[in-house]
UniProtKB/TrEMBL annotation:
NCBIfam families xrefs: DegV (TIGR00762)
Identification of the protein by name: DegV family protein
Keywords from the named record: Lipid-binding
Pfam families given in the database record: DegV (PF02645)
A single GO molecular function term of this UniProt record: lipid binding
Length: 293
C-alpha cells in the first residue's frame, strides 16, 4: 500500500518540518485578542511568547483545523495514495479528532487515528509506523503500537496564569500557590493531562523529577535519552546544565519546543521532561529538529 501521513501542529512540527519528513500538515488555529492564526504554518511559539511578554493577560484560545484547509490538504494526496493516515492531537485535549473523523467518515481512503499523543510522541509513533510498513507489516500490525504508553512525562508550568484562565486552577488556589511558591506537577498519561502532585519551587521541582527519572532508568540506559520539551523557557540553558550533573552525563539530552497548541494552555516557560526509549532505527529522524546539548 502507498500510504500518506498527515500530522497536525500539535506534533510540534512546523509545516516545513513535516514536509521534510515526507508528511502532510494540518494547522490547528489559535485566536489571540480577536485575530486568528494558523499554528505551525504562520504562527509559532516564539510569536506567542512575544505577544505574551507584552501582555501577560492576553486572551488566547485554540481551535480545530479549518475544514476547508483539511479538505485542501487531503486533496493533494488522495488520488496518488491508497490510504491517507491523519494523526491529530490527543482526543482528550481537543475536538480536532472528532471533527476530522466526521469530516472524512465517508472516505474509505482516509484513516484518522484516535490519538492519545502530542508533541514528539506523535512523531515517534509515526516513525515506528513507517518502519513497520517498510518492513512488510500489515496496516493493522503497524498501527497497533499507537496504543502503547509506558513512559512517565511530567510537565511543570513556570507561571499559573494560563492554568487559571483555562479553568484548570482556581484563582484562589493560584494565589496560595504563588504565596507558598507551590507549582503543580502535571503528568501526561495516555493522552490526558492530570495532576501528579505539587512542588515547592519551579526549578527544584524539575531537578527532583529528572533525578527520579534517572534513578528509575539507571540500571539500563541503553537507547534512552532525556527529552526536554519547553514553551520558550528562558531558563532552559541553566536547567540543562543541572540535568547533566544529575544524570552524570550518562543520558543524551535533547530539547524541542512545546507546540503552540499546548503552550497557550500551559503558559510560556512551561517545561516537560521524560526519559524515553528511542530505537536506533528512528533516532536520527526523531531528533532531526531537536537541539542536542
Amino acid at each position: 500500500m502507498k500510504i500518506k501521513i498527515i500530522v497536525d501542529s500539535s506534533s510540534g512540527l512546523t509545516q516545513k518540518q513535516a514536509n521534510e519528513l515526507g508528511w502532510g500538515f494540518l494547522p490547528l488555529q489559535c485566536e489571540i485578542d480577536g485575530k486568528k492564526y494558523q499554528i505551525g504554518s504562520e504562527f509559532f511559539v516564539e510569536d506567542f511568547k512575544k505577544i505574551w511578554q507584552e501582555n501577560k493577560k492576553v486572551n488566547a484560545q485554540t481551535s480545530a483545523t479549518s475544514p476547508a484547509i483539511a479538505e485542501m490538504e487531503l486533496a493533494k494526496y488522495i488520488d496518488d495514495y491508497d490510504l491517507v493516515l491523519i494523526y491529530p492531537i490527543s482526543t482528550h485535549l481537543s475536538s480536532q479528532t472528532s471533527f476530522l473523523m466526521n469530516q472524512f467518515k465517508d472516505n474509505k481512503k482516509v484513516y484518522v487515528v484516535e490519538s492519545k499523543r502530542v508533541s514528539y510522541l506523535v512523531v515517534r509513533d509515526l516513525l515506528i509506523f513507517e518502519n513497520k510498513i517498510n518492513a512488510g507489516a500489515s496496516f493493522e500490525e503497524a498501527i497497533a503500537h499507537f496504543e502503547i504508553n509506558n513512559e512517565r512525562l511530567i510537565l511543570i508550568p513556570q507561571f499559573n496564569d494560563a492554568l487559571v484562565k483555562g479553568g484548570r486552577l482556581s484563582k484562589s488556589a493560584a494565589v496560595i500557590a504563588k504565596l507558598l511558591k507551590i507549582v503543580p506537577l502535571i503528568k501526561y498519561d495516555f493522552g490526558v493531562l492530570e495532576k501528579e502532585g505539587i512542588g515547592r519551587v519551579f526549578t527544584k521541582s524539575l531537578e527532583k523529577t529528572v533525578s527520579e527519572m534517572y534513578e528509575d532508568n539507571k540500571a539500563n540506559l541503553e537507547d534512552k535519552i532525556l527529552f526536554v520539551v519547553h514553551a520558550e523557557s528562558d531558563l532552559l540553558e541553566s536547567l540543562i546544565a543541572k540535568f547533566k550533573v544529575i544524570t552524570e552525563n550518562n543520558l543524551p539530552i535533547y530539547s524541542v519546543k512545546l507546540p503552540v497548541d499546548i503552550s497557550i494552555h500551559t503558559g510560556i516557560g512551561a517545561v516537560c521532561v521524560t526519559v524515553v526509549n528511542v530505537d536506533k532505527n528512528i533516532k536520527d529522524k526523531l531528533t532531526l529538529f531537536a537541539k542536542k546539548w
